Amino acid sequence: MSMNICGAPCCWGVDDPKNPYLPPWQRVLSEAGQAGYRAIELGPYGYLPLDVDVVSQELEKNGLAIVAGTIFHDLVDPDNLPNVLEAVDNICRLITDSKLPALPVHEGQKWPAPYLTVMDWGHDARDYAAGHPDTAPRMSKKEWEPFVKHVRAVCERANEWGVRPVIHPHAGSYIEFSDEIEAITRDIPYEVAGLCLDTGHLYYSGMDPVAYLRKYQDKLDYVHFKDVNESVYRQVLSEKIRFFDGCGKGAMCPIGTGSLDYPAIKQALEDIGYSGYITIEQERDPRNSGTSLRDVKRSVDYLKSVGYVI
Question: Residue 309: which pLDDT band, with cuts at 50, 70 and 90?
């Protein structure tokens, strides 16, 4: 099974660009290259600069391309939509620039990279209920319909740039649980946006990653890999704390050291004929990013050991 394994700045604790403890972006790109990645995500809007000359120089230095940009914004509030669409324009302008190193298209791959991962974020009611499908508040039909219009507007703007949008169900957001994944894929057709399924978020939110990769194979354009430390995860669920506070306690761990069955995930991806990109993630407190390179290497080495050809 041959694929490109990529990285993401969240492995260095980069989730909030305003966090004062974030490592320099140049260090993240350097260590991603040292880990053997061929590509990396941009991370949250505002972390990497939008200057194509500056970014392309660092990417080339470290043997990297960009696999995806990220929208990680409040997609519920209509007043926020103009700011989100401006971010989409800025991200897509950067990642489509011909100066950036290009990623190859794999045989059988449905859509070329880079992608735009689309995630809703910023709602306390859902953040504190992450991983709790039975108690997390759901949107009413009256609330859901304009929300879908906002998500679709983001996806359609990316399509105008020729960038494939992929909706990412994310723990602590309004697209997290099984019923919400089913609803968003029903209400936004595949020709408008595909799916980015994340093995760790699926598990965190009570879903079997193998089953859901198979279930949504016809809509699957991009995949995130992570692993979950079971004891920390159970503790975090009992405390009902914010999702990233749980990650700061170590809920996510190097692949192969947690609860997820990566040989079975590999078999599922082979069975459905997936030939796209896979990005390793391990959310953490950025104050612990001194061990990030060690951990991402550990994840890559484990995947190789169970048959992934990287």
Answer: confident
Domains assigned to the chain: 5-305 (3.20.20.150)
pLDDT in the model for residue 310: 73
Place of tokens 């409040």: 74
Q: Output the pTM of the full model.
A: 0.96
What are the pLDDT digits (tens) for 59-81? 999 999 999 999 999 999 999 99
